[in-house]
Records
---
Amino acid sequence: MVTEIISTHTPELFQKAVRLAAERLRTGEVVALPTETVYGLAANALDEKAVARIFQIKGRPAHNPIIVHIADKEMARDCVARWPELAEKCSKSFWPGPLTMVLPRSEIIPDNVTGGGETVGVRWPSHPFMQAVIRECGFPLAAPSANLSNQISPTNAEHVCSQLDGKIPLIVDGGQSQVGIESTVLDLSVSPPRILRPGMIHGESLAAVGLPMADGWLPIESGSLKSPGLLKKHYSPKAKLVVLDWPDEAELVAKIINLKLKTQNCFVIAHTNIPAGFGAGNVSVIPHDAEAFARALYSELHRCDAAGAELIVVESPPDLPEWSGIADRLQRAAA
Ligand code: TXA
Ligand code: MG
């Protein structure tokens, strides 16, 4: 299959891409589309056969549910059986944006979208292209991240192409994803609500709008399959990844040697203690700012993999709520 990559950087190209993507989606095809978190691999969420293709293309286990993307509140309400007060509150505060709410499913949602369960995750993305396509289609879009199962999510069209070229007919290039890590998944089907997957909308933001939260979230080690995104090993680069702290370069080198890791093809990603001339290794710096770090992180990991990195050393993130989504992804990538 030839994969067409189309851009959206002028109003004319944008409109043309919206029409082309919607045409494909109406006939049950699967296409890669930009969102503000990461790129999504989208299909008509109401078409079981189209959704089945997503699982096949990604090599995704059938029990892993897929997030349904909508472009207004009515569409969200059509997908769920109940719309509690807390859903109303969260949608007012955080939609459109990087928050997925898990609620009891309605009967229009096919079984394979929910992984056979009784709940569905719904999200109203803020990316203008994704919104325009959903409106043009008039139906919700099921879309997991546009990567092969267990690999790093794509944050630009090139990343998608490197994993899915020849497997899908269309990739829409909507630029760099502005959030950079996947949405926060909040389970509102239980009381009190639980964060199933942390993201850039963190527990304290949710608490600030009056959400009663369970203490923290399920420890990853508990291995709950409530959200398969909680599996310990997930979102991994090909290289071995370790998260370390170091006051200076000598200690960084000592730690790497102590861990009996090879320092050839070693890439360091730092935000605060930046090693100056780190031996044979490559150093990249992401600003010490959670939003900037999240935006750049997956691109750095993709770049390290593409450059044949054998070891990626990431400077550990600060233990602060706004870094919790980043800490979670690094922990899984290092597992
Ligand atoms: O930011 C995002 O969420 C991106 C973009 C494309 O929107 N999508 C994404 O999808 O990350 P995916 O499939 O890679 O991750 C979805 C996560 C999985 O961990 C899945 O288990 C969880 O959301 N999830 C989806 N529906 C669920 C449900 N009904 N109950 C529990 N967890 C659910
Ligand atoms: Mg994913």
---
Amino acid sequence: MNTLSFPEFNQDCFSLLCRNLSKKVFEKLKDKATGNGCTLYQTINSGVVNQDSSVGVYAGDAESYTLFAELFDPIIEDYHGFSSKDKHLSYLDPSALISPNPDPEGAYILSTRIRVGRNIAGMPLGPAVTIEQRNEIEGQVVKALNSLTGGLSGTYYPLSGMDESIRSRLVEDHFLFKPGDRFLDAAGLNRDWPNGRGIFHNAEKTFLVWVNEEDQLRIISMQPGGDIEAVFTRLVTAIMKIEKSVPFLFDERLGYLTSCPTNLGTAMRASVHIRLPQLGADMPVFKKLTDLFHLQIRGIHGEHSESERGIYDISNKKRLGVTEVECVQNLYNGIIALINREKEFAAASD
Ligand code: ADP
Ligand code: CIR
């Protein structure tokens, strides 16, 4: 891409980047750079190269969100419904959640997973870290993780040198990130791969931390079944403990800062893998219900993947301008509605 000319977008490009980058804003921002050298070119490259992006931008550092605010703010408002005058509030208290297992018999929910993204205060975000900074982050995070005790204690497995059969099995079993994501590639997030990347997990693989993927930390709690409260409680305990030794990048207005603007605020995605074959066969009804509860439908191998055997990944779409408790509570309320509708469909087809 020519750094000085306005990017060309295909007719069928509907990304938030293409909808929100006007020629006027482009001209105003195109020669600016943050203290870490992040430019507009770097910020928008993923969406220019990948015209099927849904969003298309990644921030290289905290300053990018203010220096390029004329691009980021409308994108953030579009995705989260969060205006430039709003202020994010965090509320990480599992006791505030009302979520008895919505599927105690295990007829629908296969597993529950809640993750948050975190980055380190004072460091650039992934698209702009140097190899030395990435290694330093890995060292700092692993030191903090190795000091965890009880159910959170575990082992760090660096990606460099990991046995290929173990790596692919971890991906297949939904525990580890995939390599070579083209959206992250174009954002500069895969530089020096696999250096500095890895996964920490406890023996049961119910508590996991991805290091230096899209964000510097992805803190994950997951387990089979629908006990959302147990998953949230374990996650919050882990976040609080890690935060004692790793200072997280936090902004008064935008909450926890992440490289992708869809993850700002809570940086939380709470999801279930759920079997909904009848609803899956009637997408308009399925979509209407998920939209009502601000939920997103993904395939069972994560973003940009397909559903298999009527199983879907259902999660909160909005992460900024809602508290963590609200994210999880909305998911819970949505799941109840989805299960009820699935039961109605099944009864009608009997
Ligand atoms: P992220 O959740 O970190 O934004 P992805 O959508 O790529 O990223 O998902 C990462 C992995 O987590 C994928 O393998 C996906 O199948 C898995 N996953 C997500 N939700 C669940 C769940 N509820 N149960 C089991 N695995 C899940
Ligand atoms: C896109 O625009 O489609 C990709 N950059 C992904 C956007 C949201 N997902 C994410 O951050 N994992």
